[in-house]
């Protein structure tokens, strides 16, 4: 079978220039999804292009992705990243992956033993926000989560990422091996701290000695990760195949921009990712907050209101002057004031660059994709700034409109009466609430009282209820496009 590993590829495709046989699996990555392929694996690859390092990655997907891992194996664990700018596309074959492991294709035991191998120094993760099994509003481990309850009963055969990490650390502890660093690369505010608290709480439920060992020896650096990587489509794969001269089912397209800020806190060493452009800093939190609120907050705003307004992609929303202005205002008027950035950070330049990135017409980033899992995203993307505005008595109409857009979206019915395919771990609970109220503003206080998303403090606040109700009513009366246009100074 012709694959990228055994075929002469088109000229212009950049190939690994290092000897892949020198690589050793020092990183086990959980979540071989779209993002990791175009971000951490690519940074590792670029670092390998420039140094004599031997850091290689074993790819694991705990949920689904059997076909992807099977395809990856067929092509000697190489795959393609296409960086698509507005005008040109750069195509790179990535060689940093040494092997892969999958609970269904191999076994749960095989994944655990891989994580327990002595030379493994980092377990990294892109498992989506819901993969942490924490309460979205508080960031604390949700002990009522079915996966967690099950894993606490059968810790030797886990299903959740936390269960795998704790069992693998237990084996390392028992065997007198060094711990590994747990590095979250998910879009979660203080992702390292959230991962640490969840792992420690899980371990505490099982074994107090193990809990103490993890608390003392394992590190959980926070990371700010950024690169827009839409899910691959058949069209993207066809386009990349033409550029390559060969099919690659594991290929992924992304924007040219990428950023990675990492807290330099590794228990057992780390690669020189800085050689490839990553920044190691002492405190990542301000960068995480900036990115989550300004980029992701406005992304979610555009996703809900864009979908309702009939825009399929983020770049389509950017062709509408009202949405463009509202996104810019959301960044600078609603989100930026809540940030506490190091001196010299230019948030206006950052916002301008974000609008340019969102406008990239080559990236087909669906509003529907970003709208997914809103219950896990809204608290960190909008909740903190909302608290800031309540405390300062300032205008939070952009955030109220974003939340109202989410509420209108999770009703499951669009502005033309068509069904919306709402994907969210809390979809059923949200849908039940929406069904009780129909498309009526009375749904606003009902949804605001879901404490796992809004907490009591926000959900019961009369100003929040008023502002979100006003925006929701406007969506019912005038639709998303007019509501968004009015936010930026137009008329409703
Ligand atoms: P994806 O859907 O392509 O991949 C998700 C991966 O997570 C899959 O490997 C899946 O097996 C795994 N997964 C899903 N649910 C899980 C669970 N409950 N427990 C353990 N593993 C689970 O998504 P993609 O695009 O790779 O994004 C993943 C995460 O990466 C996002 O949720 C976000 O936190 C972060 N991210 C994504 C960016 C993007 O533009 N795609 C950019 C920055 C961060
Ligand atoms: C998006 C992010 O899907 C989403 O929720 O907002 O994945 C976004 O593309 C990335 O965070 C960009 O770095």
TrEMBL record:
This is Polyol:NADP oxidoreductase. PANTHER family: MANNITOL DEHYDROGENASE 2-RELATED, MANNITOL DEHYDROGENASE DSF1-RELATED. It comes from Vibrio ruber (strain DSM 16370 / JCM 11486 / BCRC 17186 / CECT 7878 / LMG 23124 / VR1). Keywords: NAD, Oxidoreductase. GO terms for biological process: mannitol metabolic process. Residues 283-475 form the Mannitol dehydrogenase C-terminal domain. Transmembrane segments: none annotated. One of its GO terms (molecular function) is oxidoreductase activity, acting on the CH-OH group of donors, NAD or NADP as acceptor. Its EC number is 1.1.1.-. It is an enzyme of class 1 (oxidoreductase). Belongs to the mannitol dehydrogenase family. UxuB subfamily. It comes from the Bacteria. Residues 26-274 form the Mannitol dehydrogenase N-terminal domain. InterPro entries: 6-PGluconate_DH-like_C_sf, 6PGD_dom2, Mannitol_DH, Mannitol_DH/Oxidoreductase, Mannitol_DH_C, Mannitol_DH_CS, Mannitol_DH_N, NAD(P)-bd_dom_sf.
């Amino acid at each position: 079978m012709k694959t990228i590993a055994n075929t002469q590829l088109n000229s212009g495709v950049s190939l690994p220039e290092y000897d892949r046989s020198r690589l050793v699996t020092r990183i086990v990555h959980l979540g071989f999804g779209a993002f990791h392929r175009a971000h951490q694996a690519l940074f590792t690859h670029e670092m390998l292009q420039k140094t004599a390092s031997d850091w290689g990655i074993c790819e694991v997907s705990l949920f689904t992705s059997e076909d992807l891992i099977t395809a990856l194996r067929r092509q000697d664990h190489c795959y393609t990243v296409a960086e698509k700018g507005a005008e040109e596309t750069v195509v790179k074959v990535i060689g940093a992956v040494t092997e892969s492991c999958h609970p269904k294709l191999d076994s749960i035991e095989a994944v655990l033993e891989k994580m327990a191998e002595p030379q493994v120094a980092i377990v990294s993760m892109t498992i989506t926000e819901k993969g942490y099994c924490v309460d979205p509003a508080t960031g604390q481990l949700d002990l009522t989560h079915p996966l967690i309850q099950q894993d606490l009963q059968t810790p030797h055969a886990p299903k959740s990422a936390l269960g795998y990490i704790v069992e693998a650390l237990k084996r390392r502890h028992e065997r007198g091996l060094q711990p590994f660093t747990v590095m979250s690369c998910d879009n979660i505010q203080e992702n390292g701290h959230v991962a640490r608290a969840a792992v420690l709480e899980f371990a505490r439920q099982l074994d107090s000695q193990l809990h103490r060992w993890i608390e003392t020896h394992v590190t959980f650096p926070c990371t700010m990760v950024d690169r827009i990587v839409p899910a691959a489509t058949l069209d993207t794969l066809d386009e990349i195949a033409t550029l390559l001269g060969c099919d690659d089912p594991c290929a992924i397209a992304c924007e040219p921009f990428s950023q990675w800020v990492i807290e330099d806190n590794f228990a057992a060493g780390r690669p020189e990712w800085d050689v490839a452009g990553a920044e190691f800093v002492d405190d990542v939190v301000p960068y995480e907050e900036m990115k989550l609120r300004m980029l992701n907050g406005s992304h979610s705003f555009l996703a809900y209101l864009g979908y309702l307004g009939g825009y399929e992609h983020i770049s389509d929303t950017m062709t509408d002057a009202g949405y463009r202005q509202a996104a810019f205002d959301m960044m600078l008027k609603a989100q930026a004031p809540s940030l506490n950035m190091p001196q010299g950070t230019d948030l206006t330049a950052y916002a301008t660059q974000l609008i340019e990135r969102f406008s990239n017409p080559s990236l087909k980033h669906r509003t529907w994709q970003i709208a997914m899992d809103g219950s896990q995203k809204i608290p960190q993307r909008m909740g903190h700034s909302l608290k800031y505005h309540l405390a300062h008595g300032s205008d939070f109409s952009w955030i109220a409109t974003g939340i109202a857009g989410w509420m209108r979206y999770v009703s499951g019915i669009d502005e033309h009466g068509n069904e919306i395919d709402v994907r969210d771990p809390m979809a059923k609970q949200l849908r039940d609430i929406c069904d009780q109220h129909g498309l009526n503003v009375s749904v606003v206080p009902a949804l605001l009282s879901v404490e796992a998303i809004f907490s009591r403090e926000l959900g019961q606040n009369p100003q929040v209820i008023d502002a979100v109700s006003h925006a929701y009513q406007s969506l019912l009366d005038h639709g998303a496009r007019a509501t968004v246009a009015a936010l930026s100074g137009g008329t409703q």
